[in-house]
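quick one, 253 residues, struct below
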Amino acid sequence: MSLEALLFDVDGTLADTEEGHRVAFNMAFAKAGLDWNWTEALYGQLLAVTGGKERIGYYLDSFNTEFDKPENLSEFIANLHQSKTDYYTALLFKGEIPLRPGVERLINEARAAGLRLAIVTTTTPANVEALLLSTLGEESESWFEIIAAGNVVPAKKPAADIYTYTLDEMKISADKCIALEDSFNGIQSAQGAGVRTLITVNGYTNTDDFSGAVAVLSDLGEPTKAFEVIAGDKTLLEKTGYINIDLLKQMFE
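---
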């Protein structure tokens, strides 16, 4: 089978967004008059759960059990999450969350090569839109055939549902795609749908289990700065030092 499509996760993959999310959560908590403070260490634990609203619920159930939950808990969480989204998108448009190394280059190369592109994420559509607009420009949303985001499926990563949905919408088989992910939940989701997965780690995920990944790298690399190979065929990968379409096809085969 030949490679036909690249399926991109967003948070931690396209950009190091998780720290921006953490800061935005804390800003939303302060605005609501809450004394909650999600430190980097705590947030690393909270990332076990995907989805912002789900993460707040997990925090209350497992870390802040003494909090007096309001009767309308779902509405309370939804309002907090909306406030957090507002703060997060503001950070994006201030240019404070750039794309990771190699991302823009690889997307442009994929488009030039005629590969199909999709986004497969559990973050909200507003977050995806803001990231694309603030980094790749107004036309960039149209580059992606499918933007599967938010609550488009009921079960979020590590469930395979979001990938299965994307493959169905694209009418493409899993063996013609490579997913680009950054976390254990992400690779579990992609592999659950039968999609081979390339991992670029970040500070929150560099100790995750990435068994079965095509390769695990520090980032996608650039011609002027090679990636670090954490796992994979070093002989093949270090010949180039950065992910391009030719290298992806070799890895795919």
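The chain has two domains: 5-16+97-252, 18-93.
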